[in-house]
């Protein structure tokens, strides 16, 4: 790490007591509290992946991973929404036109971006931009966003879908001001309850072309070579950091509990049971192994980017594979911890129960579904 990015990890760790104290209120309010938002902003953590020329830290991918992991260790919801804000802000900063970037990141304040970038809306070309419409879900971090991202499919005047020059679907991400978006709420969920992942709609709003970029062919317009790792690599780093942080917190919470936890009918604490000791060692090893693999493949991909290239197809798929694998290992660890904690993890309000709920909510994201694993194997078979 550079001194600057190492400081960011330290600042994220220093916020842990505050984040922990605010976690229950965030769940009750369904979004990150204003107290935590202000603290994250003061520490610059929303903009760790924004280029330095726009006021961000321009952290390396491994460094950003460590920050996301630290925030998720403090609280899964906070870590999730912060990584969603940080990655969305990165895309707005590196892929949009100069005038748009200056409007979103300037001396009056750096923008906090959020939204769903999957192409569920439509963008019809008009004048020097697009008329955008769509209904969006899962806009994590929207509760405190100052700019909203929205994924679209370009369409013609009759509403027919268009392809780009290479024949691929013309998918485009746009960024809108809050007054162009209608928040619908509707965030009542099992886990990640404090992420403010609200539904929102966009009703025929004009967006200048500079405030957009093509999703499948975006190339960095500013910043250093780290950004050659690509949009999907940046997204993966956020999900991987989240999973590793929540999984580690679940196991550590269990370690704090078992020396005094005695199950009904038992004569010794859980910590003294050999079955617990054996299984804990296995889950601990699995999570540490997943973490090592995550940092190994992201580090290798970043090294390729820093050398002036782009990660190979196999490297791209390995970043997805590692992220999905880390999520599964973390979910297994959280289930193990929840089970051995017994009724201590059953009652609402406990950290361990929150870890259990948050990581299982995270497993439902499309970015870590089974297709990421089959796509990896397919790519490996055709690129040997």
Task: Provide an overview of this structure.
The chain is α+β, with helices and mostly antiparallel strands. It folds into 3 domains: 3-106, Butyryl-Coa Dehydrogenase, subunit A, domain 1, CATH 1.10.540; 114-214, Butyryl-CoA Dehydrogenase, subunit A, domain 2, CATH 2.40.110; 225-382, Butyryl-CoA Dehydrogenase, subunit A, domain 3 (Up-down Bundle). Helix content is 49%, strand content 16%. The strands form 2 sheets. The protein has a 7-stranded mixed beta sheet with strand order 7-8-4-3-5-6-9. A two-stranded antiparallel ribbon has the order 1-2. β3 (113-126) and β4 form a beta hairpin. α7 (231-257) packs parallel to α9 (313-341).
Task: Outline the secondary-structure elements.
Elements lengths: L2 H12 L1 H14 L4 H9 L18 H14 L1 H20 L2 H7 E2 L2 E2 L2 E14 L2 E11 L7 E9 L15 E6 L5 E4 L12 E11 L3 E3 L16 H27 L16 H33 L6 H29 L9 H12 L8 H12 L2
Parallel strand pairs: 3-5
Antiparallel strand pairs: 1-2, 3-4, 4-8, 5-6, 6-9, 7-8
Can you give keywords for this protein?
384 residues, alpha+beta, Butyryl-Coa Dehydrogenase, subunit A, domain 1, Butyryl-CoA Dehydrogenase, subunit A, domain 2, Butyryl-CoA Dehydrogenase, subunit A, domain 3, 3 domains, two-stranded antiparallel ribbon, 16% strand, globular
The number of distinct structural domains comes to: 3
With strands numbered from the N-terminus, the spatial order across the biggest sheet is 7-8-4-3-5-6-9
Number of distinct helices: 11
Q: CATH topology of the largest domain, which one?
A: Butyryl-CoA Dehydrogenase, subunit A, domain 3
Query: Structural class given helices, strands, pairing?
Result: alpha+beta
The helical percent reads 40-55%
Oligomer: single chain
* Termini gap: 33 Å
CATH superfamily of the largest domain: Butyryl-CoA Dehydrogenase, subunit A, domain 3
Shape: globular
Beta percentage is 15-25%
H and E order = HHHHHHEEEEEEEEEHHHHH
* Poorly predicted runs: none
The CATH architecture designation of the largest domain is Up-down Bundle
Rg (CA only): 21 Å
Q: What is the typical, i.e. mean, pLDDT? A: 96
> How many distinct beta strands?
9
């Amino acid at each position: 790490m550079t001194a600057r990015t190492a400081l960011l990890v330290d600042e994220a760790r220093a916020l842990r007591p505050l984040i922990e104290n605010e976690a229950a209120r965030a769940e009750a309010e369904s979004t990150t509290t204003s107290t935590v938002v202000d603290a994250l902003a003061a520490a610059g953590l929303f903009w760790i992946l924004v280029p330095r020329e726009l006021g961000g830290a321009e952290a390396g991918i491994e460094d950003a991973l460590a920050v996301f992991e630290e925030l998720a260790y403090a609280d899964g919801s906070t870590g999730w929404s912060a990584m969603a804000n940080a990655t969305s802000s990165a895309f707005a900063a590196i892929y949009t036109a100069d005038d748009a970037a200056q409007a979103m990141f300037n001396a009056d304040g750096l923008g906090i971006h959020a939204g769903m970038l999957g192409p569920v809306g439509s963008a019809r070309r008009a004048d020097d931009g697009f008329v955008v419409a769509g209904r969006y879900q899962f806009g994590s971090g929207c509760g405190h966003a100052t700019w909203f991202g929205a994924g679209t499919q370009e369409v013609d005047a009759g509403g027919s879908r268009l392809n780009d020059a290479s024949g691929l679907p013309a998918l485009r991400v746009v960024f809108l001001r809050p007054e162009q978006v209608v928040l619908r709420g509707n965030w009542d969920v099992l886990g990640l309850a404090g992420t403010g992942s609200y539904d929102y709609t966009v009703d025929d709003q004009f967006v200048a072309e500079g405030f957009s970029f093509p999703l499948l062919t975006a190339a960095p317009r500013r910043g250093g070579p780290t950004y050659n790792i690509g949009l999907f690599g940046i997204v993966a780093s956020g999900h991987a950091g989240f999973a590793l942080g929540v999984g580690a917190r679940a196991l550590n919470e269990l370690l704090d509990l078992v020396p005094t936890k005695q199950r009904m009918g038992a004569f010794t604490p859980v910590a003294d049971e050999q079955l617990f000791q054996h299984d804990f060692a296995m889950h601990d090893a699995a999570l540490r192994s997943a973490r090592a693999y995550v940092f190994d493949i992201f580090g290798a991909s970043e090294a390729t980017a820093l050398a002036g290239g782009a990660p190979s197809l196999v490297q791209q798929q390995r970043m997805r594979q590692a992220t999905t694998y880390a999520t599964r290992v973390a979910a297994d660890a959280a289930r193990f911890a929840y089970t051995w904690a017994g009724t201590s993890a059953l009652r609402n309000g406990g950290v361990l129960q929150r870890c259990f709920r948050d990581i299982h909510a995270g497993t439902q994201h499309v970015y870590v579904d089974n297709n990421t694993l089959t796509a990896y194997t397919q790519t490996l078979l055709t690129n040997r």
